Amino acid sequence: MARKTAHAEGQQHPIKVYLLVWFWLFVLSTCSYLVDYFGLQGYLRWSLILLFMIVKAGLIVAVFMHMAWERLALIYAILVPPGAVLLFVAIMAFESGYTHLSRVTFFGTEGASTEHMTIEPSGSGE
Amino acid sequence: MSAAPEYSSRDAGIEVLSPASPRSLEAPSHPGGWQGFAADWASDQTAFKTATWGKAMIWIFLLSDTFIFSCFLLSYMTVRMSTTVPWPNTGKVFALTVAGVETPLLLIAIMTFILISSSGTMAMAVNFGYRRDRVTTTILMLATAALGASFVGMQAFEWTKLIMEGVRPWANPWGAAQFGSSFFMITGFHGTHVTIGVIFLLIIARKVWRGDFDRGARGFFTSRKGRYEIVETMGLYWHFVDLVWVFIFALFYLW
Predict the structure, then answer these.
(1) Cα–Cα distance between B76 and B179 in angstroms, integer?
(2) Per-domain residue ranges for chain B?
(3) Out of A10, B18, B19, B151, which residue is the most buried by the measure of CB atoms under 10 Å away?
(4) Neighbouring-strand partners of residue A117
């Protein structure tokens, strides 16, 4: 893979690199689709979905968006701030846990669950 | 190592501007008020040495857009985690029946592959743009736009199907009411991004086709000469739209 940095003529890399990434994005998308198709559940499902998602996102940002060939000054300026979103996720997960607990406690909802529900009563839900 | 010339305040013009006091440490004279404010912030400071202003600005725009989509996905997470009503099974909701066989999430899978393919053609368009290959760049950009337009078309089909089945932002037949509002908000905003991308792809493809960037023709709005770099800028936006779909596909449709 070309390791040269961007020059006056912009980002130029072999077409082969793009085709390879394209191929892997297809494979990874198929994999994440198969997670649903085979009905995997629980932590296996969630970790596989997140894994395929992060690898796909990384390929797009690094190669298609040329981040792998940019200087660290730009990479950090763009990729570090979204880290704050992770903190936001933690805060809101905590908050929604509390909201859920309050609803169960005060509205007395039986069998409270955030799991999937099937459309047909005879489906294979949790 | 450092390619940037070293400026001291004196080199920068104090001696030129105020020859009477060459040793003064006062800042060079500059316009007051807002003009001075702008002049200071726009002074010769370059953080991104190898990225042009255009690239830096599109990245900063995309960063802000990242936060917008993050907030949508976060609010979706919050309502889904806090509801006591079961969440609809997206595999069944978005299933398509083709030739009598019901396949879960079929339409969404096709849309995913279409958007990835459009990213592939876009990446190659950027490459051929820098090679000054006008015809190939135009064809690849038009292919990208066509794939993007078909994505929006499928989304319109999906929305129609769900609305016919009774999905509303406040209710749906299968479970938690928040499903509808999350769905319309997230996919609607993403679809808007794709639509805007298609429009800009067509505009820039036309400019490439006419050879605006070879002739140094001035832009309609900016009155400035365009460069082939705009194809890469366009590409960054388009790949970002694809990137957002990766997260929506994983977190909304598959979760």
Answers:
(1) 8
(2) 10-41, 53-254
(3) B151
(4) B88
Instruction: Map tokens 């995913």 to a residue.
Output: B112
Instruction: Give the pLDDT confidence of A100-123 residue by residue, as tens digits.
Output: 999 999 887 655 444 444 444 443
Angle at A40 between CA A22 and CA B116, to 5 degrees: 15
Q: Hey, are the CB atoms on B229 and A10 less than 8 Å from each other?
A: yes
Per-residue model confidence (pLDDT) at position B59: 96
What one-character-per-residue DSSP string does B180-232 give?
Answer: HHHHHHHHHHHHHHHHHHHHHHHHHHHHHHHTHHHHTPBPTTT-SB--THHHH
pLDDT tens sequence across B99-110 = 778 888 889 999
Query: Residue B246: which of A56, A19, A82 has the closest Cα?
Result: A56
Write out B123-162 in H/E/C secondary structure.
HHHHHHHHCCCHHHHHHHHHHHHHHHHHHHHHHHHHHHHH
* CATH homologous superfamily, domain B53-254: Cytochrome c oxidase, subunit III, four-helix bundle (1.20.120.80)
- What number is the ipTM of this complex? 0.81
Token readout for B179 is 């499903």
A65 chain-B contacts, CB cut-off 8 A? 235-236, 239-240, 243
Two structure tokens written together for A107: 């509205």
Chain B residue numbers with beta carbons less than 8 Å from the beta carbon of A100 are: 81-84
Label the pairing between strands B101-103 and B96-98: antiparallel
- Domain segments of chain A as ranges: 8-71, 81-111
Q: Do A15 and B239 touch (CB under 8 A)?
A: no
- Identify whether the C-beta of residue B175 lies closer than 8 Å to the C-beta of residue B85: yes
Task: Give the confidence band of B22 by pLDDT, cuts at 50, 70, 90.
Answer: low
